[in-house]
TrEMBL record:
The chain crosses the membrane at residues 41-66, 72-95, 190-207, 282-300. This is Thiamine ABC transporter permease. Keywords: ATP-binding, Membrane, Nucleotide-binding, Transmembrane, Transmembrane helix. Gene3D superfamilies: ABC transporter type 1, transmembrane domain (1.20.1560.10), P-loop containing nucleotide triphosphate hydrolases (3.40.50.300).
Length: 605
């Protein structure tokens, strides 16, 4: 019946319950890996549990007092004087004050501890994301990553705070109630507790289902994030193609899928809660009927029976709290699982143990028998490339689209590592150089450079964080950007909008070039840096690039072949490797692929 109901509830899409390596993590593993995050806050945790213990003792005291008063009233009424009642009242008042203070500290410091753990995990996750390579990001969805770093970790906070407390309180209450119940009446206790194992088994089964559906709905939240991000970042394309409705439909579909998953989730949760409530009622029924029979036979006195009923309620309340906590527990487990999924991704581009910093870089580059493929099972993009570039040489790379020009250049700053062979900078394999040091000696200007949401100043400063305003202005002047920046409403302090949306293509490109001027690297990669610009902007940006290129080793990838005519050497890269190389005049004279490309380009203009 459950299966049929489940089928009716959702047209299901399977979501990856395993990580990218096909691994699943058991609850035990998740807890084992989460516990160390409590370590820095051990004193706080101990104090939190101490407060939990105090509140538990205060709660457990009531049935004892009721039992004492009832038995006194039945068997020794003369001893129940006003002063005894006042003392009992005062004792209970003190207990309640302690309970209130304990509850306050639990709610306050406990939550702060949870938030601190969330902060630590978020910092660790962000730091780890920074270490992951292009290869990882080529397959990842930013929206999914955002969901993990925000909402998933929020669930972990709640879990971090409530989990130890809830289990501690419930554990103590269940154990103490059990012992007290045994001390009151052994046969009745054994009958009552016979229901418990069946109840626990049901809880376990439901819990597994809940965890699966939680993970699926979390994944779907990530998908919605990714879709929103995609639609909003591409809002110009959406509007220019009048595709608002299509985007809305895509969003609605994702949203509906989330609802369906949530329904399934609550289906299991509802079943779980109803079942435990049913067992709860069953236990009460057993106590009521069996206890009344015991009373009838004189096997239990009324005071003990009342205390017994109260302790059974305490016990059931604890079980109910654990049940209610199950949802939070599963959400926390899902958050930890999704956190670990990323933390377990090993960065594939790292410093080797013997890596050295780059010193006095001249900019000589060698490709020694370099082959490269993006995936193990995919074909080679580059095969057996050999190339020597002297320091300060200006190399242009041309060739058919998809021939591997960008890929070749990406191997120099180790955005990817070679599959075989080696790339060397001043004679040292780039894999033997410290990654940070290597990349700080290489500047890259692409067709579409990312500008951060912030001021012009902040964006140029990215080239050398901490640079003085004077240095930033000097870099902007060299990039031919100073004039238009000065004309902006707030000059260098103008906010340029997300991804520089308030600037023209040429202006954005000149800010990116200023950034590289500030960085001042000896090796430069210009990857179709002017391709997206109109003729006038191209002319201005090209001037900036020519200034930037002076005295550096430069790799220029260009489709506009006029821009590379003056290069020291032109490489024609095809799927078969470097097909031709030489100066513009040599290659034209040769009458090969370059001449063909050049004629085609000249005809198009
Ligand atoms: N991240 C990636 N993962 C898998 N394959 C990729 C990746 N990036 C590029 N490729 C593939 O590698 C090949 C070479 O791409 P690359 O971008 O280096 O070519 P290109 O010569 O620079 O092309 P274009 O002139 O069009 O920019 C292409 O077939 C491309 O599909």
């Amino acid at each position: 019946m459950l299966k049929a109901a489940k089928k009716n509830l959702i047209e299901r899409t399977r979501y990856p319950l395993t990580d990218s390596h096909g691994r699943t993590r058991s609850t035990r593993e998740l807890l084992r890996r989460f516990v160390p995050y409590f370590r820095p806050y051990l004193p706080v945790l101990i104090f939190d549990l101490f407060c939990a213990a105090l509140t538990t003792i205060c709660e457990l005291a009531l049935p004892v007092i009721v039992r004492y008063v009832t038995n006194l009233a039945q068997y020794n009424l003369s001893a129940l004087t006003v002063s005894v009642i006042v003392r009992i009242g005062l004792l209970y008042l003190v207990l309640r004050i302690i309970d209130t203070a304990g509850a306050y500290f639990m709610a306050n410091i406990g939550h702060v501890m949870g938030a601190r753990i969330e902060t630590d995990m978020r910092r660790e996750l962000f730091a780890h994301l920074q270490t992951l390579s292009f290869r990882y990001y080529a397959n990842a969805k930013v929206g999914q990553l955002m969901a993990r770093i925000t909402s998933d970790l929020f669930d972990v906070t709640e879990f971090a705070h409530h989990c130890p407390e809830e289990f501690f309180i419930a554990g103590v209450k269940i154990a103490v109630s059990f012992v007290i119940l045994l001390s009151v009446n052994v046969p009745l206790t054994l009958v009552t507790f016979a229901v418990l194992p069946i109840m626990l088994l049901c809880c376990y089964k439901f819990n597994r289902r809940m965890r699966e559906t939680f993970k699926e709905s979390r994944w779907q939240v990530g998908e919605i994030n990714a879709q929103v991000e995609d639609s909003l970042l591409g809002i110009r394309v959406v509007k220019s193609f009048a595709q608002e409705e299509t985007e809305q439909q895509k969003f609605d579909e994702g949203n509906r899928r989330w609802l369906a998953l949530k329904k399934l989730n609550y289906f299991w949760m509802g079943g779980f809660q109803a079942t435990t409530r049913g067992f709860d009622g069953l236990m009460n029924l057993v106590v009521l009927v069996c206890g009344s029979l015991f009373l009838l036979r004189g096997a239990i006195v009324p005071g003990d029976f009342v205390a017994y009923l109260l302790y059974v309620q305490t016990l059931l309340t604890s079980i109910r709290r654990i049940v209610e906590f199950a949802e939070q527990f599963q959400r926390g487990m899902t958050g930890i699982d999704r956190f670990l999924e990323i933390m377990d991704e090993q960065p594939d581009i790292t410093d080797s143990p013997h890596a050295i910093p780059c010193e006095h870089v001249r900019g000589e580059i060698d490709f020694d028998d370099v082959s490269f493929s993006y995936e193990d099972d995919a074909g080679e993009v580059l095969g057996h490339i050999n190339l020597h570039v002297d320091a300060g040489q200006n190399i242009a790379i041309v060739g058919p689209s998809g021939g591997g020009k960008t890929t070749l250049c990406n191997l120099i700053p180790r955005f990817y590592d070679v599959t075989s062979g080696s790339v060397r900078l001043d004679g040292t394999d780039v894999r033997d150089l410290q990654l940070h040091s290597l990349r700080s000696h290489i500047g890259v200007v692409q067709q579409d450079n990312y500008l951060f949401s912030g001021t012009v100043l902040h964006n140029i400063e990215y080239g050398r964080p901490g640079a003085s305003r004077e240095d930033i202005i000097r870099a902007a002047k060299l990039a031919g950007a100073h004039e238009f920046i000065s004309a902006l409403p707030n000059g260098y302090d103008t906010f340029i909008g997300e991804r520089g949306v308030k600037l023209s293509g040429g202006q954005k490109q000149r800010i990116s070039i200023a950034r590289v001027f500030l960085k001042d690297p000896p090796v430069l990669i210009l990857d179709e840096a002017t391709s997206a610009l109109d003729n006038e902007s191209e002319r201005i940006v090209q001037q900036s690039l020519d200034t930037l290129a002076r005295g550096r080793t430069v790799f220029t990838i260009a489709h506009r072949l006029t821009t590379i005519r003056g290069a020291d050497r032109i490489l024609v890269l095809t799927a078969d490797g470097i097909a031709e190389q030489g100066t513009h005049d040599e290659l034209i004279a040769k009458g090969g692929i370059y001449k063909e490309l050049y004629s085609m380009y000249s005809d198009m203009r």
